UniProtKB/TrEMBL annotation:
It comes from the Bacteria. Homodimer. Its cofactor is Mg(2+); thiamine diphosphate. The lineage of its organism: Bacteria, Bacillati, Actinomycetota, Actinomycetes, Propionibacteriales. Binds 1 Mg(2+) ion per subunit. Binds 1 thiamine pyrophosphate per subunit. CDD domains: TPP_DXS (cd02007), TPP_PYR_DXS_TK_like (cd07033). This is 1-deoxy-D-xylulose-5-phosphate synthase. Thiamine diphosphate binds at residues 73, 146-147, 175, 286, 368. The gene is dxs. It is an enzyme of class 2 (transferase). Residues 628-647 are annotated as: Disordered. Catalyzes the acyloin condensation reaction between C atoms 2 and 3 of pyruvate and glyceraldehyde 3-phosphate to yield 1-deoxy-D-xylulose-5-phosphate (DXP). It catalyses: D-glyceraldehyde 3-phosphate + pyruvate + H(+) = 1-deoxy-D-xylulose 5-phosphate + CO2. Pfam families: DXP_synthase_N, Transket_pyr, Transketolase_C.
Amino acid sequence: MSLLDTVNGPRDLRGLSAEQLTQLSEEIRAFLIHQVSRTGGHLGPNLGVVELTLALHRTFDSPADPIIFDTGHQSYVHKIVTGRRDGFPTLKQKNGLSGYPSRAESEHDWVENQHASASLAYAEGLAKAFRLRGNRHHVVAVIGDGALTGGMAWEALNNIAADDDLPLVVVVNDNGRSYTPTVGGLARHLTGLRTSPRYEQVLDVVKRQVNRAPLVGSAAYDVLHGIKAGLKDVLAPQGMYSDLGIKYVGPIDGHDVLAVERALQQAKQFGGPVLVHVLTHKGRGFPAAENNEEDQFHTVGQIDEVTGLPLSVSERTTWTDVFAEELERLGRADDRVVAITAAMLYPTGLHRFAASFPERTYDVGIAEQHAVTSAAGLALGGMHPVVALYATFLNRAFDQVLMDVGLHRLGVTFVLDRAGITGNDGASHNGMWDMSMLQLVPGLHLTAPRDATRLREALHRAVTIADAPSVIRYSKEKVPEDVPAVDRVGGVDVLRRSPAGDGAGSGVLVVGYGQLVGTALGVADRLVDQGIGVTVVDPVWALPVDPALVELARSHELVVTIEDNLVVGGCGSRLLLVLSEAGVMTPVRCFGIPQEYLPHASRGELLSDLGLTPQDIARSVIELVAGSTGEPAHPPLVEADRPPAEG
Ligand SMILES: Cc1ncc(C[n+]2csc(CCOP(=O)(O)OP(=O)(O)O)c2C)c(N)n1
Ligand SMILES: CC(=O)[C@@H](O)[C@H](O)COP(=O)(O)O
Ligand SMILES: [Mg+2]
């Protein structure tokens, strides 16, 4: 039996010797590589926190001492030591183990939101509640150096620094990277530390001091102050924290369980907020990860567990690929175009633009609010910024879009990848909110391209819009084949016109948005089989609503909208409102995502569970048409012979 087999809860860690901890760390690393290479997931981050997580659970009494993981993608080891080892073959799968903390899974999991930089605020609030209620336990927050670049983290630190007896331990897991090396002034200092020839000396001195006496705050600074001045400079961050009034312990070798444990013990005994600075390596123990310059296997699909090479490489183009290529082309044609990423250069495809135009590419860290308002500043200065984010992460910067960009009528383009249902990353990763939020911004232009040609055209149009924000959003799916228009009415592309059968009504207008245009065409196939007339359109620019769409609605007996966004506040509901204001009485039925936090599952599973499939939507529409005409639905739909629609 392996040591790992004996660990079914944190208490099983308590009696282990130093040698056993080393063996257990090795077994956990082998387990992570074996499991995650098969399921996909955040392999690199979790390989980097093995010893840290063991030290945390040996020092603190979870769940009575809550351990809150920022973003939560690095909580696999936490899950392993809290009794969920056997769930890993189902990682990120429907009804399987979540890839992030999950309150439904375990009492040891406290926070599920995967939007970075929030852990310190949660922990600060929880610690205040403990103090008010006389709860003598500690709250621990584990935050990465990347997440520490987020504004919320500094808002929390400002409050923590002013609260001398808060029972809070902040652990900074500093591996020097988000996906790529972490950017910003703080990161620059830390990189200096890590590359300093005296790096080992610093760790050794701190380790010896931590062993000997409480080394917190000014003591740490004095000790380090004794080292050559050159080193002290690179250790400014600990000075920075101490100067803020937060006690600092570190830097600690994050792969030395006992050294981390002693530092955590001291922090725990201090009696007020302490920041423990732990240095780790993302991907540790897996050379393919450690040597991967792009992201050190921040997140992987199914890979070979020895070489780390992907087990399958899709030939099909992604939306990200199309965007990356076209933006670089745009950058050559227009030197006003600049690009901004929030620590996701490769995932958003901006690396191509950055390679050609490094001086016009900005990585601001995980700081979407800063990204948006900095873009507003760039636009004020005559540039045309393109801010590339994952759709769900724009939520964090809605006010900046509304007021810092929209109110000032500034030409900023937002390119939102992973729009719609992403699925396996769970509730806070689905890009299902943006159209509902953004349709509130006066003057904003939004398009959900249906194919690569429309995406290219949209980019070229967007960078010419100089008096309002423009938004282009697309999903995580592969790009479907081009869908040519058979006609155009105003700015609206007509994709299909099938007249009604004899005596039937004026037919159904099906409005498809973005990736779900494929679904709309699948619905049309089924309506035509039933003799129902149908017109399928793509609004192209969904916001503002094109007057031509209003006239098309007026001439049909029913309008059906299909979008990969919340129904509430989505583009369908916006069209409904515009039709109402125009006095168009055609009934409208909006299909989209319900106002719920969705469980983790594949995109296809969730679309099917939500009834966002051609057959389900067609069935509803046929019932609606039958209900309105009093005619019974024609023979039941035969699905066996139908190919699944893109969705
Ligand atoms: C608000 C927000 N923006 C972007 C992301 C995407 N994201 C997930 S993890 C990650 C990098 C995190 O880096 P760090 O905090 O240093 O943790 P590490 O992976 O290095 O352990 C990013 C950018 C996110 N989860 N939340
Ligand atoms: C944790 C996080 O926010 C990202 O790493 C996310 O997992 C990215 O997922 P994809 O890039 O695979 O869509
Ligand atoms: Mg990091």
